[in-house]
């Protein structure tokens, strides 16, 4: 049994429903138990800025799935909700990212854990900090709360 954190994001269609549906599908998998859910945050688009605002949240799950199978199930949820991949960082019905999986650092074909960009993204760190401020980022050896505060202060240099 492992603890993992997933980031959810949506900026097309019925955004609240998209999050509800994604959580529903995640919890329908017998290998996944949702333990905590952050609030839903309305966030300005990061990276590619000429697109609608996002709703973002972070959830804590307990799972028997391996990191790769958790990723694949997240991709399946994206597919079931009708996401069509068009452009990197572009608009999406739902995005499911594996942020952290236990204290693992993995860099394999389809999966990099911790998520490579997570420490630079307020839309990830703010909800993550709400539900799990003490979780340690395995690469930087800093807590989510420390990373969040650093990002807010603008002192990140990695
Ligand atoms: N930790 C991870 N979580 C989710 N996807 C990952 C992760 N690491 C690598 N990937 C790969 O990235 C691909 C996701 O591409 P996607 O189109 O969702 O990127 P994006 O959402 O536009 O950008 P970002 O991943 O920076 O949020 C997946 O097919 C998956 O194989
Ligand atoms: N606010 C916000 N901006 C983004 C998001 C997101 O989920 N929220 N996802 C992106 C690609 O993964 C790119 N930019």
Set down the secondary structure blueprint:
Blueprint: E1 2-10, H1 15-28, E2 32-37, E3 41-43, E4 54-63, H2 67-80, E5 95-101, E6 106-108, E7 111-113, H3 122-131, E8 136-137, E9 142-143, H4 144-153
Helix pairs in contact: 3-4
Bound molecules: adenosine-5'-triphosphate and 2-amino-6-hydroxymethyl-7,8-dihydro-3H-pteridin-4-one.
Domain 7,8-dihydro-6-hydroxymethylpterin-pyrophosphokinase: 5-133
EC number: 2.7.6.3
Catalytic activity: 6-hydroxymethyl-7,8-dihydropterin + ATP = (7,8-dihydropterin-6-yl)methyl diphosphate + AMP + H(+)
Ligand types: adenosine-5'-triphosphate, 2-amino-6-hydroxymethyl-7,8-dihydro-3H-pteridin-4-one
Q: What radius of gyration results from the CA coordinates?
A: 15 Å
How many strands in all?
A: 9
What is the CATH domain class? Alpha Beta
Shape: globular
Mean pLDDT: 94
Gap between N and C termini: 31 Å
**Unreliable residue stretches:** none
GO molecular function, one term: kinase activity
Catalytic activity: 6-hydroxymethyl-7,8-dihydropterin + ATP = (7,8-dihydropterin-6-yl)methyl diphosphate + AMP + H(+)
Pfam families: HPPK
Organism: Phocicoccus schoeneichii
Describe the structure.
The protein is built from four helices and nine strands; from the N terminus they run E-H-E-E-E-H-E-E-E-H-E-E-H. The protein has helices at 15-28, 67-80, 122-131, 144-153; strands at 2-10, 32-37, 41-43, 54-63, 95-101, 106-108, 111-113, 136-137, 142-143. With 158 residues, the chain is of the alpha+beta class. 30% of the residues lie in helices and 28% in strands. It has one domain (2-116): 7,8-Dihydro-6-hydroxymethylpterin-pyrophosphokinase HPPK (Alpha-Beta Plaits). It starts with a strand and ends in a 5-residue tail after the last helix. Helix 3 runs antiparallel to helix 4 (144-153). Bound molecules: adenosine-5'-triphosphate and 2-amino-6-hydroxymethyl-7,8-dihydro-3H-pteridin-4-one (PH2). 2-amino-6-hydroxymethyl-7,8-dihydro-3H-pteridin-4-one binds next to strand 4.
């Amino acid at each position: 049994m492992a603890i993992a954190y997933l980031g959810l994001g949506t900026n097309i269609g019925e955004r609240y429903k998209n999050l509800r549906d994604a959580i529903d599908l995640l919890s329908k998998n017998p290998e996944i138990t949702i333990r905590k859910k952050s609030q839903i945050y309305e966030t300005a688009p990061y990276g590619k800025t000429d697109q609608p605002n996002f709703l973002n949240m972070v959830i804590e799950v307990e799972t028997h799935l391996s990191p790769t199978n958790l990723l694949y199930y997240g991709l399946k949820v994206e597919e079931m909700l009708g996401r069509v991949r068009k452009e990197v960082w572009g608009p999406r019905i739902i995005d499911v990212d594996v942020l952290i999986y236990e204290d693992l650092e993995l860099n394999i074909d389809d999966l990099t854990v911790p998520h490579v960009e997570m420490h630079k993204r307020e839309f990830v760190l703010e909800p993550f900090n709400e539900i799990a401020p003490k979780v340690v980022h395995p690469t930087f050896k800093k807590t989510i709360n420390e990373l969040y505060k650093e990002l807010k202060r603008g002192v990140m240099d990695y």
